[in-house]
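Morning. Coffee machine broken again, so started the prediction first thing and wrote up yesterday's gels while waiting. Chain of 332 residues, entered below exactly as on the submission form.
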Amino acid sequence: MRLTSLLATAVTLFGALAIALSAPSSAAAQSSSGVPAWLQAHIGPDDGQIAWPVLQRARALYLQKRAEGEVRNPCYLAMDATRPGDLGGGVLGRRFYVICEGNGVFRAISAGHGGGRDLKGAVNFANGRRCAKNFGNAQDSELTAGGAYVTADTKTSFKGYYRVSATREAAFFRSFVQFDGEGEAANARQRVIGGHAARLLAGLCLRKAPGNPYADRDGYVPVGKLRDYAGGRSNGCTSWSPADAQQMIPMLQGNPTTLYIYPESRDIRAVAQAVAGGRSPAQAGSYWNASCLKEIGAPRFWPRQTLEPIIAQYKQDHPAPPPRPLPICKDP
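Came back before lunch.
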Protein backbone atom coordinates (compact mmCIF):
# COMPACT_ATOMS: atom_id res chain seq x y z
CA MET A 1 0.00 0.00 0.00
CA ARG A 2 2.81 2.36 0.92
CA LEU A 3 4.59 1.75 -2.43
CA THR A 4 1.36 2.44 -4.32
CA SER A 5 0.88 5.65 -2.40
CA LEU A 6 4.44 6.77 -3.14
CA LEU A 7 4.03 6.02 -6.84
CA ALA A 8 0.76 7.97 -6.95
CA THR A 9 2.43 10.90 -5.22
CA ALA A 10 5.31 10.78 -7.69
CA VAL A 11 2.95 10.78 -10.66
CA THR A 12 1.05 13.74 -9.21
CA LEU A 13 4.25 15.70 -8.62
CA PHE A 14 5.51 14.88 -12.12
CA GLY A 15 2.25 16.11 -13.64
CA ALA A 16 2.43 19.31 -11.62
CA LEU A 17 6.03 19.84 -12.72
CA ALA A 18 5.07 19.35 -16.36
CA ILE A 19 2.32 21.94 -16.04
CA ALA A 20 4.68 24.40 -14.35
CA LEU A 21 7.38 23.92 -16.99
CA SER A 22 4.97 24.41 -19.90
CA ALA A 23 2.83 27.14 -18.33
CA PRO A 24 2.71 30.33 -20.42
CA SER A 25 3.47 32.45 -17.36
CA SER A 26 6.70 30.67 -16.40
CA ALA A 27 8.60 33.56 -14.80
CA ALA A 28 11.98 31.86 -15.20
CA ALA A 29 11.44 31.31 -18.92
CA GLN A 30 10.31 34.89 -19.48
CA SER A 31 13.18 36.36 -17.51
CA SER A 32 15.83 34.33 -19.34
CA SER A 33 14.34 35.26 -22.71
CA GLY A 34 14.78 38.98 -22.21
CA VAL A 35 11.08 39.78 -22.59
CA PRO A 36 10.59 43.26 -21.08
CA ALA A 37 8.61 43.45 -17.83
CA TRP A 38 5.78 45.53 -19.34
CA LEU A 39 5.23 42.84 -22.00
CA GLN A 40 5.29 40.03 -19.45
CA ALA A 41 2.20 41.59 -17.88
CA HIS A 42 0.26 40.75 -21.06
CA ILE A 43 1.07 37.02 -20.95
CA GLY A 44 -1.75 34.77 -19.79
CA PRO A 45 -4.80 32.70 -20.74
CA ASP A 46 -7.45 35.44 -20.60
CA ASP A 47 -9.02 37.20 -23.56
CA GLY A 48 -6.71 39.96 -24.77
CA GLN A 49 -3.64 38.25 -23.31
CA ILE A 50 -1.08 36.25 -25.25
CA ALA A 51 0.04 32.72 -24.39
CA TRP A 52 3.72 32.35 -23.60
CA PRO A 53 4.56 29.84 -26.38
CA VAL A 54 2.94 32.12 -28.96
CA LEU A 55 4.85 35.19 -27.79
CA GLN A 56 8.09 33.25 -27.51
CA ARG A 57 7.97 32.04 -31.11
CA ALA A 58 6.64 35.31 -32.55
CA ARG A 59 9.38 37.28 -30.82
CA ALA A 60 12.14 34.87 -31.88
CA LEU A 61 10.98 35.04 -35.51
CA TYR A 62 10.95 38.84 -35.46
CA LEU A 63 14.38 39.15 -33.86
CA GLN A 64 15.81 36.71 -36.39
CA LYS A 65 14.36 38.49 -39.43
CA ARG A 66 15.33 41.88 -38.06
CA ALA A 67 18.90 40.73 -37.46
CA GLU A 68 19.02 39.41 -41.03
CA GLY A 69 17.80 42.78 -42.34
CA GLU A 70 14.64 41.32 -43.86
CA VAL A 71 12.33 43.53 -41.76
CA ARG A 72 12.73 46.96 -40.19
CA ASN A 73 9.21 47.56 -38.96
CA PRO A 74 9.31 48.38 -35.22
CA CYS A 75 6.27 46.13 -34.65
CA TYR A 76 5.67 42.42 -35.12
CA LEU A 77 2.51 40.34 -35.31
CA ALA A 78 1.20 37.11 -33.82
CA MET A 79 -2.01 35.11 -33.88
CA ASP A 80 -3.28 32.36 -31.60
CA ALA A 81 -5.75 30.37 -33.69
CA THR A 82 -6.45 28.00 -30.79
CA ARG A 83 -8.43 30.71 -29.00
CA PRO A 84 -12.16 31.33 -29.58
CA GLY A 85 -13.06 33.84 -32.25
CA ASP A 86 -16.56 34.43 -30.90
CA LEU A 87 -17.18 34.86 -27.17
CA GLY A 88 -20.95 35.15 -27.58
CA GLY A 89 -23.27 38.10 -27.13
CA GLY A 90 -21.72 39.90 -30.07
CA VAL A 91 -18.27 39.97 -28.41
CA LEU A 92 -15.33 38.81 -30.54
CA GLY A 93 -12.30 37.08 -29.09
CA ARG A 94 -9.07 39.05 -29.26
CA ARG A 95 -6.45 36.62 -30.55
CA PHE A 96 -4.39 38.66 -33.03
CA TYR A 97 -1.55 40.68 -31.54
CA VAL A 98 0.42 43.77 -32.54
CA ILE A 99 3.58 44.17 -30.46
CA CYS A 100 5.91 47.18 -30.69
CA GLU A 101 8.51 46.68 -27.99
CA GLY A 102 10.38 49.92 -28.65
CA ASN A 103 7.21 51.94 -28.03
CA GLY A 104 5.80 49.74 -25.28
CA VAL A 105 2.72 48.93 -27.38
CA PHE A 106 0.67 45.73 -27.08
CA ARG A 107 -2.66 45.48 -28.90
CA ALA A 108 -4.96 42.48 -29.02
CA ILE A 109 -7.64 42.50 -31.72
CA SER A 110 -10.07 40.04 -33.29
CA ALA A 111 -9.31 37.99 -36.39
CA GLY A 112 -11.11 35.29 -38.35
CA HIS A 113 -9.87 31.72 -38.82
CA GLY A 114 -10.11 29.48 -41.88
CA GLY A 115 -13.59 28.03 -42.26
CA GLY A 116 -12.45 24.88 -44.08
CA ARG A 117 -14.92 22.92 -46.23
CA ASP A 118 -17.42 20.10 -46.03
CA LEU A 119 -17.08 18.13 -49.26
CA LYS A 120 -20.31 16.17 -49.01
CA GLY A 121 -19.77 12.46 -49.46
CA ALA A 122 -15.98 12.82 -49.54
CA VAL A 123 -14.53 14.46 -46.44
CA ASN A 124 -15.49 17.08 -43.88
CA PHE A 125 -12.81 19.44 -42.62
CA ALA A 126 -15.05 22.42 -41.87
CA ASN A 127 -14.56 24.62 -38.81
CA GLY A 128 -17.17 26.13 -36.56
CA ARG A 129 -17.61 29.84 -36.07
CA ARG A 130 -16.17 29.93 -32.53
CA CYS A 131 -13.25 27.49 -32.47
CA ALA A 132 -11.03 25.93 -35.13
CA LYS A 133 -10.58 22.17 -35.07
CA ASN A 134 -9.08 21.66 -38.54
CA PHE A 135 -5.90 23.24 -39.87
CA GLY A 136 -3.95 22.71 -43.07
CA ASN A 137 -1.95 24.06 -45.98
CA ALA A 138 -3.74 22.48 -48.95
CA GLN A 139 -4.73 24.52 -51.98
CA ASP A 140 -8.46 25.37 -51.99
CA SER A 141 -8.90 23.97 -48.46
CA GLU A 142 -9.79 27.35 -46.91
CA LEU A 143 -7.88 26.30 -43.79
CA THR A 144 -5.50 28.26 -41.59
CA ALA A 145 -1.88 27.09 -41.69
CA GLY A 146 0.23 27.99 -38.68
CA GLY A 147 3.88 28.94 -38.92
CA ALA A 148 6.24 31.76 -39.83
CA TYR A 149 5.24 34.51 -42.27
CA VAL A 150 6.58 37.85 -43.47
CA THR A 151 4.15 40.47 -44.75
CA ALA A 152 4.73 41.46 -48.36
CA ASP A 153 3.09 43.61 -51.03
CA THR A 154 -0.28 45.29 -50.57
CA LYS A 155 -2.84 45.38 -53.36
CA THR A 156 -5.95 47.56 -53.29
CA SER A 157 -8.85 46.60 -55.58
CA PHE A 158 -12.11 48.24 -56.58
CA LYS A 159 -14.98 45.88 -55.71
CA GLY A 160 -18.01 47.95 -56.66
CA TYR A 161 -20.48 50.48 -55.28
CA TYR A 162 -22.78 50.26 -52.29
CA ARG A 163 -25.57 52.50 -51.06
CA VAL A 164 -24.66 54.87 -48.23
CA SER A 165 -28.02 56.64 -48.08
CA ALA A 166 -31.20 56.91 -50.10
CA THR A 167 -29.51 59.31 -52.48
CA ARG A 168 -25.79 58.52 -52.26
CA GLU A 169 -23.48 55.63 -53.12
CA ALA A 170 -19.83 55.04 -52.32
CA ALA A 171 -17.10 53.08 -54.06
CA PHE A 172 -15.81 50.10 -52.09
CA PHE A 173 -12.09 49.36 -52.22
CA ARG A 174 -10.46 46.53 -50.30
CA SER A 175 -6.75 46.26 -49.58
CA PHE A 176 -5.04 42.89 -49.33
CA VAL A 177 -1.68 42.35 -47.62
CA GLN A 178 0.08 39.29 -49.06
CA PHE A 179 1.82 36.96 -46.59
CA ASP A 180 4.92 34.98 -47.60
CA GLY A 181 5.27 31.85 -45.49
CA GLU A 182 8.03 29.41 -44.66
CA GLY A 183 8.09 25.64 -44.21
CA GLU A 184 4.60 24.19 -44.35
CA ALA A 185 3.27 27.70 -44.99
CA ALA A 186 5.62 28.28 -47.95
CA ASN A 187 2.73 28.05 -50.43
CA ALA A 188 0.97 31.08 -48.92
CA ARG A 189 1.37 33.13 -52.10
CA GLN A 190 -0.04 30.34 -54.26
CA ARG A 191 -2.96 30.04 -51.84
CA VAL A 192 -3.36 33.85 -51.86
CA ILE A 193 -3.09 33.97 -48.08
CA GLY A 194 -2.88 37.40 -46.49
CA GLY A 195 -4.68 39.97 -44.39
CA HIS A 196 -7.66 42.16 -45.24
CA ALA A 197 -10.77 43.76 -43.80
CA ALA A 198 -13.67 41.40 -43.13
CA ARG A 199 -15.93 43.16 -45.62
CA LEU A 200 -17.41 42.25 -48.98
CA LEU A 201 -20.15 43.25 -51.41
CA ALA A 202 -23.05 40.79 -51.58
CA GLY A 203 -25.93 40.50 -54.04
CA LEU A 204 -24.02 42.10 -56.89
CA CYS A 205 -25.71 43.41 -60.02
CA LEU A 206 -24.51 45.57 -62.91
CA ARG A 207 -25.60 49.15 -63.50
CA LYS A 208 -24.98 51.20 -66.59
CA ALA A 209 -22.51 53.98 -65.79
CA PRO A 210 -21.06 55.44 -69.00
CA GLY A 211 -17.93 57.45 -68.36
CA ASN A 212 -17.33 55.93 -64.91
CA PRO A 213 -13.58 55.27 -64.51
CA TYR A 214 -14.33 51.85 -62.97
CA ALA A 215 -16.82 50.73 -65.62
CA ASP A 216 -16.12 47.63 -67.69
CA ARG A 217 -15.72 47.74 -71.44
CA ASP A 218 -19.51 47.68 -71.83
CA GLY A 219 -19.94 50.64 -69.48
CA TYR A 220 -21.24 48.77 -66.42
CA VAL A 221 -20.16 48.92 -62.76
CA PRO A 222 -20.95 46.33 -60.04
CA VAL A 223 -23.31 47.39 -57.26
CA GLY A 224 -24.03 45.45 -54.08
CA LYS A 225 -24.73 45.55 -50.36
CA LEU A 226 -21.83 46.01 -47.98
CA ARG A 227 -21.49 43.10 -45.56
CA ASP A 228 -19.28 42.89 -42.47
CA TYR A 229 -18.24 39.36 -41.49
CA ALA A 230 -15.74 40.16 -38.72
CA GLY A 231 -17.50 37.66 -36.46
CA GLY A 232 -17.34 34.85 -39.01
CA ARG A 233 -14.77 32.69 -40.73
CA SER A 234 -12.44 33.31 -43.65
CA ASN A 235 -11.08 31.38 -46.61
CA GLY A 236 -7.82 30.82 -44.74
CA CYS A 237 -6.75 34.46 -44.75
CA THR A 238 -6.45 36.67 -41.70
CA SER A 239 -9.51 38.90 -41.67
CA TRP A 240 -9.66 41.94 -39.41
CA SER A 241 -12.59 44.14 -38.46
CA PRO A 242 -12.85 47.17 -40.77
CA ALA A 243 -11.76 49.52 -37.97
CA ASP A 244 -8.70 47.41 -37.12
CA ALA A 245 -7.82 46.96 -40.80
CA GLN A 246 -7.71 50.75 -41.22
CA GLN A 247 -4.88 50.82 -38.68
CA MET A 248 -3.16 47.57 -39.62
CA ILE A 249 -2.79 47.92 -43.37
CA PRO A 250 -1.10 51.38 -43.45
CA MET A 251 1.35 50.10 -40.82
CA LEU A 252 2.38 47.27 -43.17
CA GLN A 253 2.39 49.06 -46.54
CA GLY A 254 5.96 49.23 -47.79
CA ASN A 255 7.24 48.23 -44.36
CA PRO A 256 7.17 44.43 -43.97
CA THR A 257 7.24 42.66 -40.64
CA THR A 258 6.86 39.16 -39.27
CA LEU A 259 3.70 37.29 -38.39
CA TYR A 260 3.72 34.09 -36.40
CA ILE A 261 0.52 32.04 -36.41
CA TYR A 262 0.06 29.33 -33.79
CA PRO A 263 -0.39 26.32 -34.00
CA GLU A 264 1.93 24.52 -36.39
CA SER A 265 1.39 20.90 -37.40
CA ARG A 266 3.81 19.69 -34.71
CA ASP A 267 1.74 21.43 -32.04
CA ILE A 268 -1.50 20.00 -33.40
CA ARG A 269 -0.13 16.47 -33.44
CA ALA A 270 1.33 16.80 -29.95
CA VAL A 271 -1.98 18.01 -28.53
CA ALA A 272 -3.95 15.30 -30.36
CA GLN A 273 -1.60 12.66 -28.95
CA ALA A 274 -1.96 14.07 -25.44
CA VAL A 275 -5.76 14.01 -25.69
CA ALA A 276 -5.70 10.44 -27.02
CA GLY A 277 -3.55 9.46 -24.04
CA GLY A 278 -5.91 11.07 -21.56
CA ARG A 279 -3.53 13.90 -20.67
CA SER A 280 -3.88 17.64 -20.84
CA PRO A 281 -1.65 19.52 -23.32
CA ALA A 282 0.20 21.14 -20.40
CA GLN A 283 1.05 17.73 -18.94
CA ALA A 284 2.50 16.78 -22.31
CA GLY A 285 4.50 20.01 -22.57
CA SER A 286 2.21 21.52 -25.20
CA TYR A 287 -0.27 24.38 -25.38
CA TRP A 288 -3.89 24.78 -26.52
CA ASN A 289 -6.62 27.09 -25.37
CA ALA A 290 -8.59 25.11 -22.78
CA SER A 291 -12.00 26.47 -23.73
CA CYS A 292 -11.68 25.57 -27.41
CA LEU A 293 -10.05 22.22 -26.72
CA LYS A 294 -13.04 21.23 -24.62
CA GLU A 295 -15.30 22.21 -27.51
CA ILE A 296 -13.43 20.52 -30.38
CA GLY A 297 -12.22 17.42 -28.55
CA ALA A 298 -8.93 17.20 -30.43
CA PRO A 299 -7.44 19.22 -33.31
CA ARG A 300 -6.35 17.83 -36.68
CA PHE A 301 -3.79 18.93 -39.23
CA TRP A 302 -4.52 18.13 -42.89
CA PRO A 303 -1.27 18.10 -44.92
CA ARG A 304 -1.51 19.22 -48.52
CA GLN A 305 -0.18 15.84 -49.72
CA THR A 306 -3.25 14.19 -48.19
CA LEU A 307 -5.95 16.75 -48.84
CA GLU A 308 -5.14 18.18 -52.27
CA PRO A 309 -5.79 14.88 -54.15
CA ILE A 310 -9.15 14.56 -52.36
CA ILE A 311 -10.13 18.13 -53.29
CA ALA A 312 -9.00 17.58 -56.88
CA GLN A 313 -11.05 14.39 -57.15
CA TYR A 314 -14.07 16.13 -55.65
CA LYS A 315 -13.79 18.91 -58.23
CA GLN A 316 -13.61 16.32 -60.99
CA ASP A 317 -16.66 14.49 -59.66
CA HIS A 318 -18.59 17.72 -59.03
CA PRO A 319 -17.67 20.14 -61.81
CA ALA A 320 -18.65 23.74 -61.14
CA PRO A 321 -21.42 25.14 -63.32
CA PRO A 322 -20.33 27.61 -65.98
CA PRO A 323 -20.03 31.16 -64.63
CA ARG A 324 -23.17 33.21 -65.02
CA PRO A 325 -22.98 36.92 -65.83
CA LEU A 326 -24.15 39.32 -63.14
CA PRO A 327 -27.76 40.45 -63.57
CA ILE A 328 -28.60 43.99 -64.55
CA CYS A 329 -29.66 46.08 -61.56
CA LYS A 330 -33.32 46.89 -61.14
CA ASP A 331 -33.17 50.46 -59.91
CA PRO A 332 -35.85 51.37 -57.36
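The helical segments are 2-22, 27-33, 37-40, 52-67, 242-252, 265-276, 290-296, 304-317. Going to sketch it on the whiteboard this afternoon.
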